[in-house]
Amino acid sequence: MRTITMTQKKWLLSLHILFSAIMLGTSVTFLILSITVASAADSSLVLACYKAMHVLSKTSVRASIIGTLVTGLMLSVWTHWGLVKYYWIIAKEILSVIAVILGPFGMYIWTLQGISLLTDTGVGAADHGAYVSNMAYLLLGIGLQLLSLIAMFLLSVFKPWGKRKAK
After folding, report:
1. What is the secondary structure of 104-157 as a DSSP string?
2. Which of 27, 68, 76, 83 could join 19 via S-S bond, C-beta 3.0 to 4.6 A?
3. Contact between 36 and 104 (Cβ < 8 Å)
């Protein structure tokens, strides 16, 4: 196993925190835009929000998730933390799987579907069952994404449950 110097660790941790902050900020932006979608009556505003979310899902969501995962894995492997030595790291890994499924896949699909449903059905789309279901999935996905990200931040700070027992 390769180890890194304290300075290298600090740079890597700084990158990890930066990518994590971008991911959290993007998720909050998704929440704001999805609340706008759910409450707006103007179809052009709703379409613009969906398009903005779709662009974010193709850019900053993917980049921040890749950056966070890569730097997190590097920190685990190149420091004393390891990939499975501590329960809090295992919990973060499970939450990361949720973030990966919801982020680049879920948000991308739900925003693209929202754009399609809006452009196919037009102004009365808010009454359309598929559109409402898609919007509900998007809101639920954003909520779960935010909860998992907040939980990962808290796990990183408090590091609960301690070290796993050696077998």
Report:
1. IIIIHHHHHHHHHHHHHHGGGGGG-HHHHHHHHHHHHHHHHHHHHHHHHHHHHH
2. 68
3. no
Enumerate the β-bridge partners of residue 163: 86
Q: For residue 1, is it within any domain?
A: no
In this structure, the chain runs to a length of 167
Tokens of 13: 């941790």
Instruction: Give per-residue pLDDT as tens, 150-164.
Output: 999 999 999 999 898
Asked if the structure places residue 165 within a domain, the reply is no
Say how many domains are in the chain: 1
Give the pTM.
0.88
For 49-81, write each residue's pLDDT tens digit. Answer: 999 999 999 999 999 999 999 999 999 999 999
- Looking at the domain assignment, is residue 116 inside a domain? yes
